[in-house]
Structure to design on (318 residues):
């Protein structure tokens, strides 16, 4: 074995052990201590100003152009705390009782998709990298319908399998984006099987085959999968916004709760080509998410490039 291979294998082993330690140790910590720990992690990450933090700052600057440098820094700091809050909750989620999950979620607009799933159909939800997707899915499993989603494969593989096992423990059905069968074919089967919410984080295009939309006055590329899946299978498409809000005293998790806002079922506003209908549906989803991103920016955990102004130089090699 080469030295490079040994280093890589050692790094992967440490990563796996770290995640396993997190899942076992953090969930046994007192709630207040656990959230303080992850606030401290967020503070250190913000102070280091790494690539992820700087990308978050650039994205926030585009959607909140009225903020000065100091205000923007404060918002980015809050965004990192929100991002780490998500991880703290992910580690602790498998040990939470159903009543604790219900207490930590406030939902609106879920009656119609609940009826669709109860009748044996499937509901497709276009979601963003907002708030706590996993907590929303755990709530859905007992209050709405179980969730099917596509997950980007992480490295090392053992860490990805840990995430899959965690999400399956809260009744999520995981379809790997890569390294398995065609993920879209799996989504079609799930939609036709029915009885589930198919929730797809689509405010960032992972395929380089997405749809260009307007997001708060800027070009952005979002995944077209939810719209295509809806048009192909007839399953209704909803845009779902998720964000954090301070919880009333004695409720929530770590002082916050997750808000789920399901918009009405969407229909194309244009006739003609399927591509035009897909573009219109995706723009409607972007419009629904835009209000949440603007009003609850710190809940938007977008530490990657998403806007056209940032993607074009990358694609052109600049």
């Amino acid at each position: 074995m080469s030295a490079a291979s040994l280093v890589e294998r050692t790094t992967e082993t440490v990563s796996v052990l770290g995640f396993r330690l997190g899942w076992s140790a953090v969930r046994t910590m007192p709630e207040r201590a656990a959230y303080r720990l992850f606030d401290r992690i967020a503070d250190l990450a913000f102070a280091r100003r790494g690539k992820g933090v700087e990308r978050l700052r650039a994205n926030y600057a585009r959607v909140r152009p009225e903020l000065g440098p100091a205000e923007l820094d404060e918002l980015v700091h809050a965004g990192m705390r929100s991002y780490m809050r998500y991880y703290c909750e992910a580690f602790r989620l498998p040990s939470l009782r159903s009543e604790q999950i219900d207490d930590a979620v406030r939902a609106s607009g879920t009656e119609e998709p609940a009826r669709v799933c109860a009748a044996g159909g499937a509901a497709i939800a276009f979601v963003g990298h907002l708030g706590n997707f996993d907590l929303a899915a755990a709530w859905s499993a007992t209050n709405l319908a179980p969730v099917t989603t596509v997950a980007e494969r992480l490295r090392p593989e053992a860490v990805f399998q840990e995430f899959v096992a965690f999400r399956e423990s809260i009744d999520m059905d995981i379809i790997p984006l890569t390294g398995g069968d065609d993920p879209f074919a799996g989504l079609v089967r799930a939609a036709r099987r029915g009885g589930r919410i198919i929730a797809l984080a689509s405010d960032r295009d992972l395929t380089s085959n997405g749809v260009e939309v307007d997001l708060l006055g800027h070009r952005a590329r979002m995944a077209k999968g939810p719209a295509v899946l809806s048009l192909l299978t007839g399953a209704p498409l909803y845009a779902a916004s998720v964000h954090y809000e301070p919880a009333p005293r004695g409720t929530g998790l770590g002082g916050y709760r997750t808000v789920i806002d399901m918009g009405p079922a969407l229909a194309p506003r244009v006739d003609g080509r399927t591509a035009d209908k897909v573009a219109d549906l995706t723009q409607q989803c972007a419009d629904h998410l835009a209000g949440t991103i603007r009003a609850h920016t710190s809940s938007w955990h977008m530490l990657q490039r998403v806007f056209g102004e940032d993607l074009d130089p990358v694609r052109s090699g600049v």
Q: What stands out?
A: The domain at 3-302 is CATH 3.40.1130 (Glycerol-3-phosphate (1)-acyltransferase). The radius of gyration is 20 Å.
